[in-house]
Specification:
Blueprint: H1 2-12, H2 16-25, E1 35-36, E2 42-45, E3 48-52, H3 65-78, H4 86-90, H5 93-106, E4 110-114, H6 117-127, E5 134-138, H7 143-151, E6 157-160, H8 165-174, E7 181-186, H9 198-208, E8 211-215, H10 230-233, E9 242-246, E10 256-260, H11 262-271, H12 273-276, H13 283-298, H14 301-319, E11 330-336, H15 338-350, E12 353-354, E13 357-358, E14 368-373, H16 380-396
Parallel strand pairs: 3-12, 5-6, 5-7, 7-8, 8-9
Antiparallel strand pairs: 1-2, 2-3, 4-10, 9-10, 11-14, 13-14
Helix pairs in contact: 3-13, 5-13, 6-7, 8-9, 14-16
């Protein structure tokens, strides 16, 4: 009887098969690739040994001995989980200590850790605005920002063309009757690897009395002194109201956080639904993140190597005919159609290079690409192999 009920339920969802077919015909359907073992450069994916160029593991910290040791210590001292949200009994001493260390690292009054960067963006945007306010957002902001803006149906969102400071100023002028304006931007844009013009944004915000929020997910551990992010990179500490960072990429663990004044932390604790209704981080993750902060400050050679590798790889790609001139270790190899991007990704995999195709709706329909991420863990040999493979396949597929 249970089986029959289950089958009837499956039949009611049968209409989804048509959508899957449409995605497949448009070359937009994605399959999950399974990583066997650790998140590292030389790895096994779907049973094949490849070089990984699609991970956000910028500094190779997922396998750093200090972080692994800290994770074990967290389990030994505080158990495997918290079994509660932060506002009931899910706040441990180590959560408070991590947030204290993050605030010191970011040069802010306080921080608040959430389950992901996605949730951190949602928490801020849905908690600090009221009727009569306006959001002003870069056109290429992350999906988490876009979704959070859509959730605030009673608050208009004005979108300015990517990094267009003239249009941003026009929107600030046109919205001066609003109670407040929130300018929100990525620090590093995740698909193209370019950096937001923060000095200009901050100058405009100060001139027009607007709040500034920066999502620094792909700048965390990458830009600024010891990886403090784009705000520090531009010397703007103390002049940006809200900074969102990640613990899931260069930090090597999991989570996101909001850094800013103490009043921001207090309002998020009381109003942010992603914080109020999600179980807090397990102890192993918390201690891992604290260990990562120590590594960032005590092993600057990791970030130096990341940038050396980045410049080396880009020079190689430019030499063979690719437009590899992004500003960060994110190197988009734009090929146009989703079909060609997926074919290139397949051929790369066959040749021992894992570079995942990025297609619509993550990027525009005609901007499908392979997004390469260079890390500190890559060797010159790895980078040379990737460049040689891109040269071979670029000619084979008439890309270069």
């Amino acid at each position: 009887m249970v089986v029959e009920t289950s089958q009837r339920g499956s039949q009611r969802l049968h209409y989804l098969e048509d959508e899957i077919i449409r995605l497949q015909e448009a070359h937009l359907y994605q399959e999950l690739f399974v990583l066997e073992g650790k998140q590292q450069v030389d790895c096994v994916i779907e049973g094949k040994r490849v070089l990984n160029f699609s991970s956000n593991n910028y500094l190779g910290l997922t396998t750093h001995p200090a972080l692994i040791k800290a994770a074990h210590e967290g389990i030994d001292s505080h158990g495997v989980g918290t079994a509660s949200v932060r506002t009931i009994i899910g706040t441990m001493d180590i959560h408070e200590e991590l947030e204290r260390q993050l605030a010191e690292f970011k040069h802010t009054e306080s921080t608040l850790v959430l389950q992901s960067g996605f949730m951190a963006n949602t928490a801020v945007i849905t908690s600090i605005l009221e009727d009569g306010d306006v959001i002003i957002s870069d056109a290429l902001n992350h999906a988490s920002i876009i979704d959070a803006c859509r959730m605030m149906k009673q608050i208009p969102t004005k979108v300015f063309a990517h990094k267009d400071m003239n249009q941003l100023e026009d929107l600030l002028k046109a919205t001066q009757s609003a109670n407040r304006r929130l300018i929100v931007t990525d620090g590093v844009f995740s698909m193209d690897g370019d950096i937001a013009p923060l000095p200009e944004i901050v100058a405009l915000a100060e001139a027009y009395n607007a709040i500034v929020m920066v999502d620094d997910a792909h700048a965390s551990g990458v830009l600024g002194k010891n990886g403090r992010g784009t705000v520090n990179h531009f010397g703007l500490d103390g002049r940006v109201d809200v900074q969102v960072g990640t613990l899931s990429k260069a930090i090597g663990a999991m989570g996101g956080y909001v850094a800013g004044p103490e009043v921001l932390r207090k309002i998020l604790i009381n109003k942010a639904r992603p914080f109020l209704f999600s179980t807090s981080h397990p102890p192993s993750v918390v201690l891992t993140c604290m260990a990562a902060l120590k590594v960032l400050q005590n092993e600057p050679a990791l970030i130096e190597r990341l940038w050396e590798n980045t410049q080396y790889f880009k020079a190689g790609m430019q030499r063979i005919g690719y437009d590899a001139n992004s500003e960060t270790p994110i190197v988009p190899v734009i090929v146009g159609s989703s079909e060609k991007a997926k074919l290139l990704s397949q051929r790369l995999f066959e040749e021992g290079i894992y570079g995942r195709a990025i297609v619509f709706p993550t990027v525009a329909r005609d901007k499908a690409r392979i997004r390469i991420i260079v890390t500190a863990a890559h060797t010159k040999t790895h980078l040379d192999q990737a460049v040689a493979t891109f040269e071979k396949l670029g000619k084979e597929l008439a890309i270069i």
